[in-house]
Amino acid sequence: MANEADTVEDWLQKLDGASKLETHSTASKLGVFAKLGVAAILGVNALMLPFLLGSMRRRAIPFVTTSDAKSRSIFEQLSRHIEHNRTSPLKFIDVGSGDGRVVMAAKRFSMAPESPFRFSHCVGVEVNSILLGVSRCSNMWDIFRRWVGARNSHQGSSTQVSVSFVRKDMWAYDVGKFDVVMVFGDLRLMPLFRDKFTKELRAGSFVVSNRFSIPGWTPVASGDEFFIYRIKKPAVE
Ligand SMILES: C[S@@+](CC[C@H](N)C(=O)[O-])C[C@H]1O[C@@H](n2cnc3c(N)ncnc32)[C@H](O)[C@@H]1O
């Protein structure tokens, strides 16, 4: 009996040890992924150094990402302000589009049958070639996935959304033809964005500023660290 109790005790100890080991290895795996993520972001920002050391360094914005949940929440808020009876197709742009995730979120939102409005064109402007490469790959992968899905279900999608990623300096890129402009800028640069958007955008267009508010403008809506503005029509004299 004593022997049996010893055996059970040994077994329980082993089990306890094993579960600690398992918890430890899950935690260390998560730690490795977190470190890889941080290293990737630092690496991508390091690749911006030549650009940052150039004449544009005073306007540099580091690469930080927006979560898909936040993008969805932004599009849901926008849908309360966009006229749903619009006949002209809407154009979306993310200035400083990073790895393209916000542009891809705009595409997904536009292609979902239940979405109250759609963008016909979604554009990302980015200076970092690596991030542009990642963005283009995401879009190719999305096109491939949809193509396989449509083949398997024998149903094509009637909604077409054109997506493009361009390598340009956002300060030299005219955003005048877009209906919704998204920006995740930097506190110091918000007055410059305000001046750019005031000069280039048509009345009625929307500006969504992620994290930082635009000084002197009153948002029509806001959420968890984002602000939605509408360019006002000039006052009739
Ligand atoms: C804060 S990140 C935002 C990324 C993405 N929009 C998002 O929300 O996930 C800003 C991005 O702007 C890019 N950027 C900085 N200066 C730029 C410039 N002058 N022209 C184009 N892109 C720029 C950076 O490379 C970076 O990817």
TrEMBL record:
InterPro entries: FAM173A/B, SAM-dependent_MTases_sf. Keywords: Membrane, Methyltransferase, S-adenosyl-L-methionine, Transferase, Transmembrane, Transmembrane helix. Signal peptide: none annotated. The keyword S-adenosyl-L-methionine applies. The keyword Transmembrane applies. It comes from the Eukaryota. One of its GO terms (cellular component) is mitochondrion. The chain crosses the membrane at residues 32-53. GO terms for molecular function: protein-lysine N-methyltransferase activity. Belongs to the ANT/ATPSC lysine N-methyltransferase family. This is DOT1 domain-containing protein. It comes from Chytriomyces confervae. The lineage of its organism: Eukaryota, Fungi, Fungi incertae sedis, Chytridiomycota, Chytridiomycota incertae sedis.
